[in-house]
Fold this sequence. Notes:
The protein has four helices and nine strands. By secondary structure, the protein is α+β, with helices and mostly antiparallel strands. Helix 1 (11-26) crosses helix 2 (39-54). The longest helix has 16 residues, at 11-26. It is globular and about 45 Å long.
Amino acid sequence: MIIETPSELAPADLDGLASLLTECVDGGASMGFLAPLAAPEAAAFWQEIGGDMRDGHRILFVARETAGGEIVGSAQLSLKTRPNGRHRAEVQKVMVRPSQRRRGLATRLMAEVEAAASERGVRLLVLDTSEGPGGARALYETLGYVYAGGIPDWALDPDGTPAQNAIFYKKLAPLR
Length: 176
């Protein structure tokens, strides 16, 4: 498996990422969208992410089975820009194609996210996931993230069912 951090999104990558997002949402993953996810909505999401990347506010991690191959997973690190928040960042949209799950890919993506955060002086990571079936609470607990609580009916899972979110954080060790 190869994990890349592209500086910009090529047209082929946009298509692959839109396909990844659609497959995950339609498969039940809580990503902030309802199923079935329309292709134009998925494409618009990635166009917005591309803008954040160009502005330096977001790092995208893309997983492929082989160099130049199909995108099978991704994760994002949203960097804070205000002076009082530059020590923290938010992990967002960790996703793996359903056919590729249970092979350690999300764990590898999270390791890359944490390493990139540490390299940038980030000492605190936060994230949230659904408490419903579309969430990944067990993954984050396994990776050492601390459950901070949740808000009932925070969002709708892809099938439209209201679900509580699960808010997590992890303090990163400073680089020596």
